[in-house]
Amino acid sequence: MGGFLIYFLIIMIIPIWAQFKVKNTYKKFSKVGTTAGMSGAEVARKILDSNGLYNVQVKETPGILSDHYNPMTKTVHLSSDNYYKSSVAGAAVAAHEVGHAIQDQQGYAALRFRHALVPVANISSNLAWIFIIIGLISTAFSNMLLIGIILMAAGVLFQIVTLPVEFNASTRAMDQMVSLGLISNTEERDAKKVLSAAAMTYVAAAAVAVLELLRLILIFVNREE
């Protein structure tokens, strides 16, 4: 029982810690202006145009840290603060989302694979726990548990594939900001901190998903022995 509680504490603490870190880091560097003095929207537009992505739009979206790139509409969405204000955090986030647009333009394999997994992951994630709960109720429903594990595995694969996509977008973001002079040499370290903190949320989500999948696999294997 003690081990069970420790396990659940761990999978609860990991994502909470990651969210705390990204929010604190973002809050800190959203108050630090850049030497270039460009808003997030201007940073995004500059990088897009420099890469020939004139067809990609940059739009404001409500919320905090709600920034994302929509490959269907070819639009970079930036939260209000990042869209209008000049800050190290805003520049880093804007450049990161444009990094996804560049991936899309270049047909980055991991991004294409993740896009292909989206419908599968959505369906499997919604169905997985139905089968898992039924399978956990009784050993007579072990086959249901196995189906749930297989469905969950598709969602876990999506989480894992997301990691190289996000890390690559951050690498592209730093390269673009530096080469275009959007941040100074002294601001590079701060921008990396913002991007690293954001990446940790994806790492945490993947780690929790893998741990939970392994736990269920062990339960199934022990039943079959």
From TrEMBL:
Query: What organism, scientifically named, is this protein from?
Result: Siminovitchia sediminis
Q: Which domain of life is it from?
A: Bacteria
For this UniProt record, give its keywords in alphabetical order, as a comma-separated list.
Membrane, Transmembrane, Transmembrane helix
Record protein name field: Zinc metallopeptidase
Segments passing through the bilayer? 6-22, 116-138, 144-167, 199-221
The record's listing under InterPro entries reads: Zn_peptidase_2
> Which PANTHER family does the UniProt record give?
MEMBRANE PROTEASE YUGP-RELATED
Indicate whether Transmembrane appears among the record's keywords. yes
